[in-house]
Amino acid sequence: MTTSKPSLAQKIAEHGERNGIHVLDAPVSGGDVGAKNATLTVMVGGNEKTYQQVKPLFEKISKKVTLFGPAGSGQHAKMANQIMIAGTMTGLTETLLYTKAAGLDPHKVLNALSAGGAQNWSLSNYGPRILQDDYTPGFFARHFLKDLRIALQEADRMGLDLSATANAKRLYEVMIDVYGLGDQGTQGLINIYSKTTKENN
């Protein structure tokens, strides 16, 4: 149930079939909260019959299980998930920076935004953690960067230019490669702005 390149999932499935082993790729989303509450989202690639046999097990740890197609499809779905999260995490980070600069109460801002069109999982789950200076990982930043690199490699292979995702990858590279914060959660991205500000003063 790890996240990998779709091509690797396909190779593992092919090897399994040659040896009489049925393989599914089934990466998950939902972070530590989803794991603790058994509300993960499971994205599956592989054979329909095998999927139906294993689905009851997936349902014990998740609120949503979906078969997307043959081997590798679950990994492609996970890449779509990570592309979306890249946008919500950078948006959350810059929202809080703007809120602080404007002199607004960040708790009030998060509460208001969570009731409108800006509501999203990152806002609801990671916004409060940032306000408490809690950067413990629901998902390690270094693992997220690995996923963004895979997503962009796949996008390039398909002839797509995902410039916003590429910018998110660049920001996480600064967080991890420059400041060594890879063991923080993805919400730790906000720390690169405070470090940059201190260096410029």
Automatic annotation (TrEMBL):
Organism: Ligilactobacillus acidipiscis
UniProt-recorded name of the protein: 3-hydroxyisobutyrate dehydrogenase
Domain 6-phosphogluconate dehydrogenase NADP-binding: 1-69
Domain 3-hydroxyisobutyrate dehydrogenase-like NAD-binding per the UniProt entry, residue ranges: 72-192
Entry GO MF terms: NAD binding; NADP binding
Pfam families: NAD_binding_11, NAD_binding_2
Entry superkingdom: Bacteria
InterPro entries listed in its UniProt record: 6-PGluconate_DH-like_C_sf, 6PGD_dom2, 6PGDH_NADP-bd, HIBADH-like_NADP-bd, NAD(P)-bd_dom_sf
